[in-house]
Here is the input.
Amino acid sequence: MVESRIKITNLNVWFENDQAIKSLNLDVRSNEILGIIGPANSGKTTFLRTLNRLNDIKDEFRMDGEILLDNRDIYKNMDVIMLRKKIGIIFALPIPLPMSIYDNIAYGPKMHGIKKGLMEIVEKSLKASYLWDEVKDRLNESALNLSGGQQQRLCIARSLAVGPEVILFDEPCSGLDPISTAKVEDAMLELKSNYTIILVTNNVKQAARVSDRVAFFLMGELIEIDTTEKIFVRPSDKRTEDYISGKFG
Here is the structure.
């Protein structure tokens, strides 16, 4: 039996009176890429932000249900700072810090009190994000000089530098060209041997390329979840088939 890293039970999320997630039950397995697909307003990004507790900053946010990370309730039994160290998130728009490439990566470890071995952390993180060979001679340059695709991989490296266990990707390639997209996907495929990955994407072809399993969300509900092959070849629900074939979205 495959070990579950995250277990979600009867999760409901509201923003004031609007319910964004409805009675969600879902297990995320260790060392898998779980792709999440679905049209706009399906609750995909809300789900990611609930896992990382970024929704907490919104006064209108409320939730019930349970989210366990390694059998610990992330809302009741875990400090939010520790949680965000364990669960990193990569957004659609890369936002490098206005400092050098090196300092972008070293910033997180320094904030967690790490003072020694920073160069080793920087190198390891940049290699894992498939960026080291492109920037190893430019570490003192401003990160703002990097291309969009390089900035996105820098943000991946920045997340890796603090030692997460789970990485959330929210449309990480939406603004990237095909070559940059391929490099980010290569990085994800390499990373899953050491991390659990959840990928929200509106690109169903991307979900098919990199995901081990795929979940289809619609109007805040999980319609079905299965292996990538099953979802794309023999989905159980007609709505999944219609979405993947482009009949709506």
Q: What stands out?
A: The first helix runs from residue 44 to 51.
